[in-house]
Amino acid sequence: MPTERTRPHPRVTHARPSSASDGPSPFDRHPSLAHRPHSRKRRARPLFGQRSRWTVARLCLLAAEALAVGAVSLLLSPSPSMLVSTCAQAQAAQDMSALRTAVAQPCRSIVLDVPALQQNPELPTGCESVALTNVLRALGFNLEKTEIADDWLPVSDDDFVTAFMGDPRTPDGHSCMAPAIVQTANAYLAAQGSELRAADLTGASFETLLGEVAAGRPVIAWCTIDLADPGDPYRIERANGRTYRLHANSHCVVVSGYDLDAETVLVSDSLVGQTSCNLQLFAERYYELGAQAVIIA
């Protein structure tokens, strides 16, 4: 590595001490040869000149402004959950607008005879299997409350789309999505020698679901416990071209009736029994949970 070149110091000749007998010294004869003081040192150049300091200051200000704008944008930008909620509200409002005219509905209100077996205490996290059991019993099949969960529902340690993740008999079980219930229902129906089959209606509008109910077919649908805000999902899976989100308060019920004039929907809820809910709010939660629905026909 080349070293920095330095300017050599001027050579200085030191005078020999003289006495009066030696006569005048060369320095006396030639004052120009007298020892000259060192030249004034060059003033060290500051790291940043005046102009440079202003440039750095401006850059710092611009950087601070950019950070502030980025922070505000991050705070104001909607989260994925907020976007899902906004879309769900818009879809539910659109459904309500159509349902108020009831052009596509054969009747303004209907109630189907669907039992409301309670999941507790045997199946604290088994709402999906009990919802399927309630529909099967409404169709005339004689089965116990825990039979679907114990004998037919596939379970997994990490799959909540095509199986139940965890154990529905335990409080720390998770959930399962519509594909798991379709698979479970069809396995059971085939074993009974029935020609009925489950169909996945995921993605259908809520108006379509009420049309199924009006035709005499109860609908298994996903929502949230007490129709509370679902919040952020703690797990997301992509399967069969769809996105499935796992929420801590995910719930599964049976839509068994509705009243368009009262704007209510009747559900068979394995936590609270037969209950009626605000139609638009239920539709919002239905869409937020991925518009998942299953029928047997």
Can you walk me through this structure?
The chain has a single domain, classed as Alpha-Beta Complex (Cathepsin B, Chain A). Helix 3 (80-101) packs across helix 8. A hairpin with a 2-residue loop joins strand 6 (235-239) and strand 7 (242-246). Helices cover 35% and strands 18% of the residues. With 297 residues, the chain is α+β, with helices and mostly antiparallel strands.
CATH hierarchy: architecture: Alpha-Beta Complex
Q: How large is the count of helical segments? A: 8
CATH class call: Alpha Beta
* CATH topology title: Cathepsin B, Chain A
Please give the domain count.
1
Quick structural overview:
The chain has 297 residues and is α+β, with helices and mostly antiparallel strands. Helix content is 35%, strand content 18%. It has helices at 26-29, 50-76, 80-101, 127-138, 147-152, 178-191, 206-214, 279-288; strands at 109-111, 155-156, 164-165, 198-200, 219-224, 235-239, 242-246, 250-259, 264-269, 273-278, 293-296.
